[in-house]
Design a protein that fits this description.
Structural class: alpha+beta
Helix content: 25-40%
Number of strands: 15
CATH topology of the largest domain: Aminopeptidase
Radius of gyration: 21 Å
Largest sheet: 8 strands, mixed
Number of domains: 2
CATH superfamily of the largest domain: Gcn5-related N-acetyltransferase (GNAT)
CATH class of the largest domain: Alpha Beta
CATH architecture of the largest domain: 3-Layer(aba) Sandwich
Length: 338
């Protein structure tokens, strides 16, 4: 067994063959994190036959709450097994100690079932106090024809989509593609954050996300306008054969179903790009109507996707300093409510 740095061609070929539902191990996300001066490792594990059997993108996070290594939606294995995960853990522990990190954090790209949880529990991992990325999402199958996808939508969703299509056809609504997060787009985004009660990313952060994915993968910004006024915009990513709605914002207008228009445009673009699925990127649990994401989750589920739950983020303590981070994040999670 050997673990070493691998090049972009080796990486892209392996990850796209696995075709897992994520962009967090794509070259676009790796490039994005490099631009913010994170120390990164693009690693491959080779077996005795010199065959690449798993990969892990890892980067170092240096925050006030502590220093740690983070592996988003990884490691990614052809066949998940405890022995290979143990090899990864042993290798990453060495890096963590060298980098003076207090723990290793992994957000597994594995279905949330007990068998998968035990892979990490048996190695000494524990549930993290917080999640790093969405752990419950709704994913739309794009293999059927658009007409069939429409029929599987909730009735009110389908009506809003059809209304939007008519408004586009009449010229009342304009769809504009652009490659810049302008001040105007960011203003809409900031107002959406205020309304939704979440902390917005910076304008530079959003622009860099587009730039990295446009360079390394496929990415699109679509703006929905009415009489030159921005009503909605979104940023979509395609990594391999998977499409993701990752950023967006809107202005509430009771007469114009801008958010429905935005997502349906994203769905159509993803199909044109031969994507096999469309991920709405984050929903709240169905059984918690008081969840902060309850309303947006109801909206997203109206498009007819299926929920996908992932194993909760896992931590492996390397030093006693981990518990300082644990206490801080536990407190923050309770304040946030999820």
């Amino acid at each position: 067994m050997e673990i070493r740095i691998i090049n972009d061609n080796e990486w892209k070929s392996f990850v796209e063959k696995l075709n897992l539902n994520t962009f967090l191990h794509s070259l676009g996300w790796i490039d994005f994190n490099k631009q913010f001066d994170h120390k990164t490792w693009q690693l491959g594990l080779f077996n005795e036959k010199k065959e690449l059997t798993s990969v892990a993108f890892v980067f170092k996070i240096e925050a006030k709450r502590g220093k740690f290594l983070f592996c988003p939606h990884g490691p990614q294995l052809i066949n998940y097994n405890i022995d290979e995960l143990a090899d990864w853990l042993n290798y990453l522990k060495i890096i963590a100690i060298e980098e003076k990190c207090s723990f290793i954090r992994a957000a597994p790209i594995l279905e949330d079932i007990e068998e998968n949880k035990q892979l990490f529990t048996h190695l000494g991992f524990k549930d993290a106090p917080i999640h790093m990325h969405a752990e419950l999402t709704t994913v739309l199958d794009l293999k059927p024809e658009l007409s069939e996808i429409l029929m599987k939508m909730r009735k009110t969703t389908r009506q809003m989509v059809n209304k939007g299509e008519k408004m586009i056809a009449s010229g009342e609504i304009q769809i504009v593609e652009q490659d810049t997060i302008t001040d105007e787009l960011y203003q809409v985004y900031s107002s959406t954050a205020d309304r939704g009660g979440f902390v917005p990313f910076s304008q530079a952060y959003l622009q860099q996300e587009y730039d990295s994915f446009a360079k390394k993968e496929r990415c699109r910004i679509l703006v929905i306008k009415h009489e030159d006024r921005i009503l909605s915009w979104g940023l979509w990513i395609i990594a391999g054969k998977r499409a993701f709605y990752h950023q967006g914002a809107n202005i509430l207008d009771k007469k114009i179903p801008a958010s429905y228009i935005s997502h349906y445009q994203g769905i159509k673009w993803a199909k044109e790009q031969s994507a096999i699925s469309y991920d709405f990127w984050g929903v709240g649990p169905k059984d918690n109507p008081k969840h902060p994401w309850a309303n947006i989750s109801l909206f997203k589920r109206g498009f007819g996707g299926d929920d996908l739950g992932l194993v909760h983020t896992q931590d492996y303590p390397v030093s006693w300093k981990y518990w300082i981070t644990w206490a801080f994040e536990t407190y923050r999670a309770k304040r946030r409510g999820f």
